[in-house]
Amino acid sequence: MFTPGSKYFLGLTGLGLVSAVLYCFLVNPSDLGAYALFGLFISAALIAGFSIFTRDGDTDTVAEAVEANTETTAPSFWPLVFALGGALTLLGIATNEIVFVLGLAVLIGGAVEWVIDDWAEKASADSEFNAFVRHRAIGALDYPGIAAVVLGVVAFLFSRIMLTVSKDEASIIFIIVSALIFATGFLLAAKPALRGKSTAIISVVGALILAVAGVTSALNGERKELVKYAKEDPYSISHRECGEEAGEHYDHEPNGSVSLRSGVIATVFVEDGKIRAQEVGLKRDVESITIPRSNSTTILFRNLDSEEYRLVVNLGEVKVGTTDVMEKVGTCTQLTGKNEEQALTVTIPKPSNPEAPYTLTVPGATGEIKVVVP
């Protein structure tokens, strides 16, 4: 029942399983080594099954041996693609979901192509007819599928490099790579004699460099500032520092212009260190602004001074939980430079209280604008 070849692979299967189980209990079940050992176990078991099914290629009769020797099998690289997909899938389980999805796609694509190759080879005894059958079945999907996978891999590896190096280094790398691609294309177009083997060598060398650099960058991870900002949103409410000083998070790369002006009910100005406001449609300054309750309302803030200011809306105080601690309620814009403007959008669910009115203030400037909510 068991052929000599299958016995070796069954032994390797048992060794891989025992090693994987011991590694999980003694080291770490989520470590990369555990995935590698389980991959060894699955691969060895699969090969052992194939060995038992094919009986190591042995035949029972002379007629079967003659028939097997007369059948020619066309060379195929799809088993290699299938194996690569399996390796990428296992690697993606331990590293990144993008690698896992890519490996799964390569695995499924390689399996489908491999099955169709095997089916086409058994269509007839004529190899040319078999190739024609295969081309009619799936030939139209070969090159687009391969191109999509290659482009996806190139884009992913290149993105890992760009996210690992600094912004200045990324610009330099992008310029150098673009220049090399342009120079190579120009040289091959100008001298057709260099095509063929030279093109293949350049492609292989470029692919190896990209693969090594991309994998190394992926293992090193993204640069520190990207990791920092990925963990928390610098523009979240918890980081809004509405004082006079610049905030570390909230004032990072402020937007000094407003493109969408629909729904603006008033404009607040800072000029000569004083705050004033004008409602839409009025050419005179007002001391209070009326805002509809529970409606999203936008107030435009424009700084006419050389110093940086921010607009703050103060909406009273609320009690924190069951304690007696009172916390201020409000929001603000980012710091705004000279002749710059920002929009402040608020939704106030409760009416204002004459004894503790809502106000618009600018830290560092004098004056305030009352906010009336009916």
TrEMBL record:
Keyword terms of this UniProt record: Membrane, Transmembrane, Transmembrane helix
Transmembrane segments: 6-25, 32-53, 73-91, 98-116, 136-158, 170-188, 200-219
Protein name: Unannotated protein
Originating species: freshwater metagenome
